[in-house]
Automatic annotation (TrEMBL):
Task of the protein: Poorly processive, error-prone DNA polymerase involved in untargeted mutagenesis. Copies undamaged DNA at stalled replication forks, which arise in vivo from mismatched or misaligned primer ends. These misaligned primers can be extended by PolIV. Exhibits no 3'-5' exonuclease (proofreading) activity. May be involved in translesional synthesis, in conjunction with the beta clamp from PolIII.
Site annotation Substrate discrimination: residues: 52
UniProt family annotation: Belongs to the DNA polymerase type-Y family.
Residues binding Mg(2+): 47, 140
Keywords: Cytoplasm, DNA damage, DNA repair, DNA replication, DNA-binding, DNA-directed DNA polymerase, Magnesium, Metal-binding, Mutator protein, Nucleotidyltransferase, Transferase
Cited InterPro entries: DNA/RNA_pol_sf (IPR043502), DNA_pol_Y-fam_lit_finger_sf (IPR036775), DNA_pol_Y-fam_little_finger (IPR017961), DNA_polymerase-Y (IPR050116), DNApol_IV (IPR022880), Rev_trsase/Diguanyl_cyclase (IPR043128), UmuC (IPR001126)
Protein name: DNA polymerase IV
Keyword Magnesium on entry: yes
CDD domains hit by this protein: PolY_Pol_IV_kappa (cd03586)
Intracellular or extracellular location(s): Cytoplasm
Example of a GO MF term: DNA-directed DNA polymerase activity
This protein's encoding gene: dinB
Residue positions of the active site: 141
């Protein structure tokens, strides 16, 4: 009779169990985790289940057992929906009219961001008591590194995590799913395997076999463009990448190819870095004359994005959230933010994102100030210069770094983008430029 390490997610009993038994020997619960590496793994990803919807259901017991959609705010799309509503095919980002058609009896609730942020902070506080290495990824998910904490907790990471999931449910009334593995890439994949109220483990030994049949789009940073390029070249599953010589992947796709080769084998060296002191960096400028049309505002925006990018590069930082700030002549402030899939330090990406946000704010309002800022700032020293992951971005990154190189040697004005070129005698320029750094929240 062979035995395996087990943990009961209900009564938290831990020990060895015969392979033939699938219930907890202490409490009889079927919610038992078994895995040969269960007591060794220490990198986790935790993600709340149907986050906004779970919070609303918690706060209104009449909604239990009913389909609930959160959305219909300013953008007219679904933010999320509960798992019951998902059975009708509703998904995040779907237009509300389509969601209503799919599930006419769903209760629709407008998002209450202040409430969700409050709960997110409470979850974060609970995580912070377990390890200093908590890295939030978004409002409802975070990585935790519990390596070396066993002596403090007198319990292996798997037990600490199961207890955390149980406590979050008991104290805050919402459920989370946990992924436990040996690196970030796999922990994040694992947390999605068993949702909702899940707990999935991916060990070292099964990493290759686990990844082999999966689509390449499972690899983080592999977006639509890269998936299509790889598909045209005959790569559809991660296994096909595993089988392919690394040198050839590198020859075809450069640095991206080297990353694909490593990630296809489940190798990910990124560390979990706490962003407890989450910083924001921003640049803003006040105009001498109010501006209301896209072109001149966009020119100022480009100048600010270049400055901001310069500072991020100098400090070896990347950021995953871009915020545009506009102040009207009546001193009304508008801020619009966008989360990036791939953190960046590139002026080009900051500018593209800023322009998209700006375009929506051109409605005849006269502005006296424009600013661009980033938050979700990470150290780019170790881990990924993530802008290399997508070939389309990698090309922009290469062009921008070439420009930086020339500027580094011959001074900032050695290369001036056409849009920013201005004869020295030009009478109207921007007013003072303010650059700030501070806490994001
Ligand atoms: P997710 O974790 O992607 O989704 P979820 O928590 O609702 O569901 P799951 O169980 O699959 O994890 O996002 C967290 C929250 O972010 C989500 O509750 C609502 C918000 N959100 C949006 O507002 N728009 C979006 O397009 C997505 C994907 C999420
Ligand atoms: Mg979630």
């Amino acid at each position: 009779m062979t035995t395996q390490a087990f943990l009961c997610r209900d009564c938290l009993a831990i020990g060895k169990i015969a392979n033939s038994i699938d219930r907890c020997p202490t409490c009889g619960s079927p919610r038992v985790l078994r895995h040969p590496e269960l007591l060794k793994l220490s990198v986790a990803h935790i993600d709340c289940d149907a986050f906004y919807a779970s919070v609303e259901k918690r706060d209104n017991p009449e909604l239990a057992g009913k389909p609930v959609i959160i959305g219909g705010g300013t953008r007219g799309v679904v933010a999320t929906c509960c798992y019951i509503a998902r059975q009708s095919g509703i998904r995040s980002a779907m237009p509300m009219f389509q969601a209503r058609k799919l599930c006419p009896n769903a209760t629709i609730i407008k998002p209450n961001m202040a409430k969700y942020v409050g709960i997110s902070r409470q979850i974060r506080a609970m995580m912070d008591t377990l390890t200093p290495l908590v890295e939030p990824l978004s409002i409802d998910e975070a990585f935790l590194d519990l390596s070396g904490t066993e002596a403090v907790h007198r319990a292996p990471p798997v037990l600490v995590l199961a207890r955390l999931a149980r406590d979050i449910q008991n104290v805050l009334g919402i459920t989370v799913s946990v992924g436990l593995s040996h690196n970030k890439f796999l922990a994040k994949i694992a947390s999605d395997l068993d949702k909702p109220r899940g707990f999935a483990v991916i060990g070292q030994a099964e990493t290759l076999d686990f990844l082999a049949p999966k689509p390449i789009s499972l690899i983080y940073g592999v977006g639509k463009v890269l998936t299509e390029t790889l598909r045209r070249d005959g790569f559809v599953t991660i296994g096909q990448l595993q089988q392919h010589p690394d040198e050839d992947l590198m020859r075809r796709y450069g640095e991206t190819g080297a990353r694909l080769a490593r990630l296809a084998r489940g190798q990910d060296v990124r560390r979990i870095s706490s962003t407890r002191e989450e910083k924001s960096v921003s640049s803003e400028t006040t105009f001498n004359h109010d501006l209301s049309t896209f072109e001149p505002l966009s020119t100022e925006l480009l100048r600010l994005c270049e400055r901001l990018s310069e500072r991020l590069k100098a400090k070896k930082l990347t950021a995953d959230t871009v915020t545009l700030k506009l102040k009207s002549t009546g001193f009304r402030l508008r801020t619009r933010a966008r989360h990036l899939m791939i953190p960046t330090q590139l002026a080009n990406i900051l500018y593209e994102t800023g322009q998209q946000l700006l375009a929506r704010e051109i409605d005849g309002t006269a502005y006296r100030l424009i600013g661009i800022g980033v938050s979700g700032v990470h150290n780019a020293l170790q881990g990924d210069p993530s802008d290399l992951l997508e070939p389309a971005i990698a090309r922009k990154a290469a062009a921008e770094r070439a420009m930086d190189h020339v500027r580094g040697r011959f001074g900032r004005d050695a290369v001036v983008r056409g849009k920013l070129y201005r004869p020295k005698t030009e009478p109207t320029g921007p007013g003072p430029t303010d650059e700030t750094e501070g806490k994001a929240r």
